[in-house]
Amino acid sequence: MKIVVPLDLSEVATKAIEPAADIARGIGDELLLVTVSGHRIRTDLRELADAENTGVPELIDQYLTSTAAELSDVDVDYRVIPGDTAAGTLVDFTDAADDIRMIVMATHGRTGVERWRLGNVTEKVVRHATVPVMVIPTRTKVSAELSGG
Predict the structure, then answer these.
(1) Strand, helix or coil at 86?
(2) What is the mean pLDDT of each run of 10 residues along the chain (149 residues)?
(3) Residue whose C-alpha is closest to residue 129's, from 75, 83, 89, 74
(4) Angle at Cα 41 formed by Cα 33 and Cα 80, nearest 5°?
(5) Which domains, and CATH codes, for the chain?
(6) 9: closest CA among 29, 30, 32, 36?
(7) Alpha helix (H) ranges present in 28-118?
(8) Among 27, 52, 85, 129, whose Cα sits 20 to 30 Å from the Cα of 96?
(9) Measured between alpha carbons, how far is 37 from 25 in angstroms, rounded to an integer?
């Protein structure tokens, strides 16, 4: 079985890797790092690829290769999934596979208007996935916000 970790090349998304790897180690599953890539690619990825004199597909492949290499004590694979919407593509991918145990992903912790304006991939995946989804919070000041401070 596989534990899917969606990565968008952001530092926040990587926060899900270690908890997912811990689960995979504990139950003997494979970790599958995935990135959705399609025609509607984020501008920052194009800019980063241009700055590094490479294409976006090569940039994504280099990122996934190096991230997978850092996880030497767990079975890990990676895949680029073609698609234009991250949430829909991820849900379709996991629905079509019969060997996906769960999805582990980070949340950017956006709320209110910001969440609505930017969309919320994590929320959409949680609502529509047919496999369990573990969400790793990335907010660092949650306790202060909960206490009114």
Answers:
(1) helix
(2) 94 94 96 87 80 91 95 94 90 96 83 47 92 86 53
(3) 89
(4) 25
(5) 2-146 (3.40.50.620)
(6) 36
(7) 43-51, 56-69, 86-96, 112-118
(8) 27
(9) 28
